[in-house]
């Protein structure tokens, strides 16, 4: 073989060897880049890539074992909290319960309960519900669920709800202790759809004026309102009070539908706008059947979001009178977005504006804003609940209603008529009794021990008349002292009226339900009484100021308003602070 032939063979292998070297170089280089050169990778391309890369690095190299799913679950709410106070993350385990609040129904056994002494006490049984069908009664104690003992420290609201709620058609076996029975009773309950009402009561006060209490804006709220109005109008209702106190919001669409019931055609109800959401106006269509009915709307510091859309539309269109205290101040609406694992976020994507152009979102700092969270307490400490003069509105953020009445943005709906929080008879003794839960606990025990005789009374008037003869004030003071609250006779009798209202009211609630309870409270509720005064005087429709202020030359919002913050589309959900309740439904 010649030298030339040998050289040709060697030359044929050169490209192959070079390719192998390149591949080996890439592999080795990648290895060293990942493990020894600061892990820079390609992270700097975008922030989202950087976040994903961080999670991969932690999973690959962190010193201890990390449950990545738990890490993500913890990080999600922290990321959203950096945007605004109302963008939020809902874990998969909580989403069904959160949505059920606004859906109008959920699947469960159909009882209302409270937990006393580490035991579930059945306060009432839903009429026509699964539990009533098998024979459960108010006063029963649930001590076993599916053959497992369920008493003691394990018993809390969340765990009770988890065990009692479930898919429609599934079974749950309950072991019941019933006072008077020697042995436990067992019932197999087939879970079913349990309706949740958003209008707790609708009735005529003084035989003339309707009262409707709306607790949330859910899928069924508008239908419930139409039914309530039809019943009231059949009884010759001459005016209406819509009570939105404590209503923290719900579906924006429900608020728009409800406002439409009272407005003439082509009136602006609300409009929305955001960075990615072009302005969208919502107008009345003239189909409402109560366009001329005198109207008063009640609000307070817990009335938020959809409640403020309703109140703002009524106020800006000069359609009715707003009575109460300044509302919460939430001008943001969230779009629900679900993930494949069953979790979801509620992301703020736009602002809403009342017809006059104002955004009523109160100021906040991005991130975990403690001042925002403490706002209601700050209002209380500054005396805003007790005096209109203590309310500091941003007078530079000025707008006008259709009649030229001045209204302000940047911090809730200011009522047309301010009614201070009633502190008549308030003492430290009453406050301690209430905050320690002693009134609720005593009235539950009293109801439980006297249920047989209390069942004879079918109206709140009859029941209260009976209770006034039972010396409940002294009986409660003795009970409270046994529980560690020293008896203070002077303070006890200074707060006599407050104590009796609370004691009687809670027993009415326990025996006759929330509708009878609200009717009883309204007899002495100063805000309701002020609303009745407005309706009786025929002054619910606002009038233009004697000297009409000069309106802005254009319809454009000021830069101040534009900086305000968020709302959005038809299916968007508005959310606000939640508050604990004494009784739970299951």
What is the beta-strand fraction? 15-25%
In the predicted model, the low-confidence regions spanning at least 5 consecutive residues are 30-44, 553-585
Number of E-state strands: 22
Rg, Cα atoms, Å:
31 Å
Mean pLDDT: 85
What is the SS-derived class?
alpha+beta
Fill in the keyword field for this structure.
single chain, 586 residues, alpha+beta, seven-stranded antiparallel sheet, six-stranded mixed sheet, 21 helices
Task: Give the helix/strand layout.
Blueprint: H1 3-36, H2 47-61, H3 68-81, E1 88-90, H4 92-103, E2 105-108, E3 111-116, E4 119-125, H5 130-134, E5 141-145, E6 148-149, H6 157-164, E7 171-177, E8 185-190, E9 192-195, E10 199-205, E11 209-214, H7 221-234, E12 239-243, H8 252-260, E13 268-273, E14 280-283, E15 295-299, H9 306-316, E16 321-324, E17 332-338, E18 344-353, H10 370-373, H11 375-381, E19 398-400, E20 406-408, E21 417-418, H12 428-435, H13 438-449, H14 451-454, H15 460-467, H16 472-482, H17 489-494, H18 496-512, H19 514-522, H20 526-537, H21 559-562, E22 584-585
Parallel strand pairs: 11-12, 12-15, 15-16, 16-21
Antiparallel strand pairs: 1-18, 2-9, 3-4, 3-22, 4-5, 5-6, 5-7, 7-8, 10-11, 13-14, 13-18, 17-18, 19-20
């Amino acid at each position: 073989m010649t030298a030339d032939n040998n050289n040709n063979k060697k030359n044929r292998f050169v490209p192959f060897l070079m390719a192998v070297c390149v591949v080996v170089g890439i592999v080795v280089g990648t290895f060293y880049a990942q493990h020894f050169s600061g892990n820079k990778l390609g992270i700097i391309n975008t922030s989202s890539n950087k976040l994903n890369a961080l999670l991969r690095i932690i999973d690959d190299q962190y010193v201890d074992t990390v449950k990545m799913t738990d890490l993500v679950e913890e990080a999600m709410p922290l990321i959203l909290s950096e945007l605004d106070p109302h963008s939020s993350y809902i874990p998969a385990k909580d989403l069904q319960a959160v949505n059920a609040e606004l859906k109008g129904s959920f699947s469960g056994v159909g009882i209302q309960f409270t937990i006393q002494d580490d035991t579930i006490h059945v306060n009432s049984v839903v009429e026509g519900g699964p539990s009533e069908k098998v024979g459960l009664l108010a006063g029963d104690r649930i001590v076993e669920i599916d053959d497992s003992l369920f008493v003691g420290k394990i018993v809390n609201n969340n765990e009770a709800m988890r065990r009692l709620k479930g898919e429609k058609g599934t079974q749950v076996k309950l072991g019941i202790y019933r006072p008077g029975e020697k042995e436990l009773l067992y019932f197999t309950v087939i879970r079913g759809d349990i309706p949740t009402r958003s209008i707790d009561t609708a009735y005529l006060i003084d035989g003339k004026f309707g009262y409707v209490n709306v607790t949330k804006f859910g899928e069924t709220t508008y239908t419930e309102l139409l039914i309530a109005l039809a019943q009231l109008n059949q009884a010759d209702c001459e005016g209406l009070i819509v009570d939105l106190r404590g209503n923290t919001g719900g579906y924006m669409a429900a608020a728009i539908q409800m406002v439409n019931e009272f407005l003439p055609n082509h009136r602006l109800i609300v409009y929305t706008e955001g960075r990615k959401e072009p302005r969208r106006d919502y107008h009345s269509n003239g189909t409402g059947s109560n366009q001329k009915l005198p109207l008063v709307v009640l609000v307070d510091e817990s009335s938020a979001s959809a409640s403020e859309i309703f109140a703002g539309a009524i106020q800006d269109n000069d359609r009715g009178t707003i009575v109460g205290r300044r509302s919460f101040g939430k001008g943001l609406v969230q779009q629900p977005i679900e993930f494949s694992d069953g979790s979801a976020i509620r992301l703020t994507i736009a602002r809403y504006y009342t017809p006059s152009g104002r955004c009523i979102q109160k100021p906040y700092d991005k991130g975990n804003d403690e001042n925002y969270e403490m706002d209601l307490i700050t209002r209380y400490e500054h005396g805003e609940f007790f005096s209109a003069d203590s309310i500091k509105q941003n007078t530079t953020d000025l707008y006008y209603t259709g009649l030229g009445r001045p209204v302000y943005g940047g911090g809730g709906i200011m009522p047309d008529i301010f009614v201070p929080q009633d502190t008549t008879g308030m003492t430290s003794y009453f406050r301690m009794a209430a905050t320690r839960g002693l009134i609720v606990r005593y009235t539950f025990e009293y109801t439980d021990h006297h249920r047989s005789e209390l069942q004879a009374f079918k109206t709140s008037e009859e029941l209260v008349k009976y209770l006034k003869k039972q010396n409940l004030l002294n009986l409660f003071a003795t009970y409270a002292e046994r529980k560690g609250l020293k008896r203070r006779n002077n303070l006890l009798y200074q707060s006599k009226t407050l104590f009796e209202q609370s004691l009687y009211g809670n027993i009415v609630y326990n025996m006759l339900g929330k509708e009878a309870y609200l009717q009883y409270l309204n007899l002495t509720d100063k805000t309701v009484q002020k609303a009745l005064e407005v309706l009786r005087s025929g002054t619910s429709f606002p009038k233009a100021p004697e000297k009409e202020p000069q309106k802005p030359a254009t319809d454009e919002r000021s830069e101040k308003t534009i900086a305000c913050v968020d709302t959005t589309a038809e299916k968007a959900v508005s959310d606000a602070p939640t508050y604990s309740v004494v009784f739970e439904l299951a």
